[in-house]
Design goal:
Elements lengths: L1 H14 L1 H11 L5 H32 L4 H21 L14 H10 L2 H14 L1 H20 L1 H39 L6
Helix pairs in contact: 1-6, 1-7, 2-7, 2-8, 3-5, 3-6, 3-7, 4-6, 4-8, 6-7
């Protein structure tokens, strides 16, 4: 059970469902309820399938390129740290220019829900805890995200734009800490330790 939560928490921070809420509301503000529900389903299925595919082939790609897990941990940790810093210093996530027929696939499914942070964290978690555990944690995160998006309007009334931004910043801070931890573990690999 502990392994599941060790997978769940970094993926939750990487997906950042609360941080996506303001963007989602902006993109769907002039969209009918039925279309919004279709967009939610489309984005969740896309994010789940793309992420699982990356989790499955990511290690094979690294092997072909002769990149070690330690190398990828350091690169991934730096990337996660950079992404989190960008979120911490930005005033808000930009709103999309407008709705398209594929808005559930791009940009909601990829790269907002399934983006670099999810790919990096997920692939490293697969190496540490296995595909089944990581996939289960991801699936729960996608489900939680779906629930949040389904009730997005109600959450906006409760949190307000400022509240949503504050929670998003806290999530970004946790993501930065996770990035530092990954760099530490990657460096430990070079010295023959597990770093766990």
């Amino acid at each position: 059970m502990k392994a599941f939560w060790l997978c769940f928490i970094p993926l939750f921070v990487s997906v950042d469902p609360v941080g996506i809420l303001p963007l989602f509301l902006g993109m769907t503000r002039h969209t009918g309820r039925d279309r919004v529900r279709a967009i939610i389903l489309q984005s969740l299925v896309t994010a789940l399938l793309v992420s699982l595919a990356f989790f499955l082939i990511g290690k094979a790609v690294l092997n072909v390129l002769n990149i070690t897990i330690g190398d990828f941990m350091i690169a991934g940790g730096v990337l996660l740290f950079a992404l989190s810093i960008g979120e911490l210093v930005s005033s808000a996530k930009p709103e999309a220019a407008g709705e398209t027929e594929e808005v559930g696939v791009v940009p909601l499914g990829v790269p907002l829900l399934a983006g670099p942070a999810v790919f990096t964290a997920g692939m490293l978690l697969v190496d540490q805890y296995g595909f089944a555990m990581t996939a289960s944690a991801l699936a729960l995160n996608i489900l939680i995200t779906g629930v949040l998006l389904w009730f997005a309007s109600a959450f906006r009334r409760i949190l307000g734009d400022t509240g949503a931004r504050i929670i998003s910043k806290l999530a970004a801070l946790l993501l930065a800490a996770f990035g530092v931890m990954m760099v530490r573990k990657g460096i430990m690999q070079f010295f023959g330790g597990s770093g766990m």
